[in-house]
Each structure stands twice: as C-alpha cells, then as structure tokens.
What does this fold into?
Amino acid sequence: MLRHFDSLDFPRPTRDALGLRFGQVSTLLDQGNVPDAARLFDTIRRDYESWSALVDLRFAQDTTSPAARADRDYADALTPHVTAHEVALKRRLLEYPDPTAVAQVVTPHTLELWQTDITTFDPRIADALEEEARLSGEYTTLLASARVEIDGTHVNLSGLAPYAESTDRATRHAAERARWAFFEQNATRLDTLFDQMVRLRHGMAETLGYDSYIPLAYRRMRRVDYGPADVARFRDEVHEHVVPLVHDILRKRCETMGWDVLYSWDEPLIDPKGNPRPAGDHDVLLARAQTMFDRMGGDLGGFFGRMRDGGYLDLVNRPGKAGGGFCTSFPTVGMPFIFANFNGTQHDINVFTHEMGHAYQNWKSRGLPAVDLLWPTMDGAEINSMALEFLTWPHIDLMVEAGQGDRFRQMHLISSLSFLPYGVCVDHFQTEIYANPHMTPAERHATWKRLEQRYLPWRNYGGLSHPAMGGRWQAQGHIYRSPFYYIDYALALCCAMQFWIRSRTDMDGALQAYVALCAQGGAQPFTRLVRSAGLKSPFQPGTLADVVRTARDILNA
It folds into this structure.
C-alpha cells in the first residue's frame, strides 16, 4: 500500500551508525560474500538518499524554518562522510580480486559510473564539500527572502511572473525593475558568495589533481560518454542555427506590436494577444491534468492519481518557499515528489508537465536493481521531462483557457527555441569562469555581457543598470548551486523536439518509445539512451539543424 507523503519519517542517521553499517559491507567482502555485500551497500544508500531527499525538500518548502535549516545543515555536514564510505567501497568492489563475482551482481554501467565517482572525492576535500553545500543554502535562502513591491502589493520573485507577462508594457517594465532592484541591492553579497564558491571548487579540483574545476565538474555530473569539446561544438551549432531563427521571431514580434525597440521586459510576452493562461487555479489544473493523462493512455493517469492522492505534490507559491521547480524521490518508498511554484501564468503548465516527466520516469524505473540506475544522468533525465511537455500537446487544451490551445502550442515551441541560446550562454559562461577562476567580480560580469551579446544579440535592458552591466547570470540558481548542470537542458531539448516531430505523424509510436525510455532510467549513459530511443545525438552533425528546420517551417519564420 502506498504510504501518504505526510506519514514519511525516515530515521535520522548518525556518523557512527553509518560507519557500522558500511563496515558490515566490508566484512561481507572480507568473507567473499559479494552478493550480500552489494545488496547491503545498495540498501544503505537507498536509506540515506530517502532521508536526505526529505531533508532537502522540507528546507525548500520553508526556508524560514529554523528546524528545517538545522536539519539541512546537519545533512550537509554528514554527507561528505557518507561519500567517503561510498567511494571507499566502490573502489574496493572495482578492485575486487574476483571481478566476475562483482559483474554478476553489479551492472556494467554501474561500474562505469563508479569508475567516475572514485575520481571526484578524497577525504581532503570533505570540509570543502560541506562548505560548498552551506554556501548553496545561503544562496537559496537569500533569493527566497525577496519581497518586492509591485502594483501596491508585495510578492516573492516567483510572484512577479504574472506582471512580467502582462499585456501592458508599463507593467512588464515595472516587474523587470522590481526584479533587478533586488539583485542590485544584493549584488555585493551575490558576488562574494559566488567568488567563494568558485575558489572553493577550484581548490577541490587542484587537491584532486585536476588543472581546473571543469573536468571535475563533468565527472561530478557523471558524464562518461562526452566531454567539453563536444559541448563546445554544440554551442556553436546553436549559435549558427538557432540564434538567427530566434532573432527573426523577435524581430517580427516587434513589428507586429509596433515597437521601435524590443526591450528585455518585452521578451516574456510571446503571444501578441497575451500569453495563454491556465484554465484555472491549482485545484482546477490538477483535475484537468488527471483527465489529460487518462486520455494519453497507458499508466500515466493511474500514476498521476497515486501522486495526487498520496500527497506527493507541492505546487502552490507561498512566502519563504524556495523558488523554481524540481522533482525528487525517496528510493525506499518508490515514489517521486513534485515541487513547484504556481503563479497563474503559462509557466504553471510548463513546469508541471516538465516535472511530471521526471516523476514518471523515476516511477517507471523504480524496480531497477541498483540505486545508481533509478535516475539517468541529468542530460538524460531532462529528455524525459522535456519530451512529456511536447507529448501532452494533443490534450493541452484542457490545461489552458478555452480556445487557447493552438496559441499555447505555438508559444511553447517559440519559448523552447528561445531557450537554447540562453542555455548555451549559461554553459559557455561557466566554462570561461572556471577556466579562469581568479577573475574579479567585475571581470565575471564583463564575461557574461560579452557572451550574452554573442548568443542573445537582441537583448536590450534599457535603463536597467544591473543586468545591462552583466548581472543577469546572478538570477540563474544553477550557476551557484549546480555548476555545469544547464547544458543538459539544451542537449535534452534537441532530443525532446525529435519526439515532438515523430509524434506529429505517429503519436502512438512516439509514446511507446517515450515510455520505454523512461523505464530504462539510468541503465545507460546519455548517448546510448538517446540511440536506444531511436533519436539522433545532439552531437551528431546536422541533428540540431534538422530540428530547427522543422520548427521554422511550422512557424513560417
């Protein structure tokens, strides 16, 4: 029977108790009992990840809670010690005298992942990892504390979204001013935080024998089948094929609206008639979503009903709640959890279908034999999420106001294309930052400004001084909290749009391939997952150009 989310309460682990449990794994290996050692090792990790995920979620749900923050700090201090035990046991299994015995109970890809993992940790960086987690929490808390005034009311940063998409240009401008006023007021603190993070990460890389943080970051992301050179070529393809298309789309929008200049606060208004809005509030959307997933067939509807009835959704925006959206899971329960901040805009639909893709994948792969395989690496995981955004298109009319389905689909396609230049800009920025870790804050801002002019040449901030001087990146939480986790979205989008293209002529086939991909979880690395789904790798010359060509034809751009 499914446990209700409110009943979840995992035992709080201690360093001593964990040491004893991991020690039992070593004892079993000493006795030559590899199957039981591997099973116990996996069980301990599932237990710890379930507890840790719940701690992180509780903190995100209320960053103002002293108890939630204390639990998060405790977990941040404990995790490096757990990692040390895990790495030691992974190394021991990789070097076990009888590799055949290990291969019988551990999959080849799991061993491939472990080969990467053991190069990312050493006890000498344990304190640095704890400090990195603390700084990440400080960034989350700072942004969650924002209370900005607009139209006579106070909202958090997520609450600005309806104003940012208003059909009234002055309102959009006011929202952009309010947003960047917060970042300008906290610019020094944000610069200091990031400077500490960069130096900390560079120091960890040097300790582990790397020339820079970049190769360490790729290994921490468990990328075993491509490297920075492949990503650099992909960025160039986005610059060649996508940037001109998006520029044309924005130029036409400017003409349609009769604007002399397109400002940054105009870009969120994708539909000249006003961005399509959700069909209703939280409760309406959940009821409509149930109908949508039921109509899609298979087990999507039944799974969503389990999430809803089991309390595995937190979608309402509120003060003190961390911004953004994510999906997490509890391996010992076998159920994922969706976290979001509904704000009454089309973003509610996008983030919901996106995170539902993550959740469905995790649920489909919950029976895989190792905790390492329950999720793909993030590049693969984002295919699952972004593909579902497109595969819900035939039924998306349920989720928007009456008569706005076609407009929503067009807006979604345009916003997806528009994301690609920004996504690669974030990645290029991080690459330059960590290749030159001793940049001053001013030099980092200048770097962003230069790269923004390359990938988003239309961007005009008007009189908004902070973003105009290169401060836009400070609002992108991934840059602070999850370095190099952003190109994943761009790579995955290239694959997700291939699902969309297939669905236009063979929806049943596209859905079957999608379900099969989700069921694989992380059983293979990114490029092999892509190939198994009948998709072309984003790194294959011409793949992105073909996707863009189809999108351009449909948009008549």
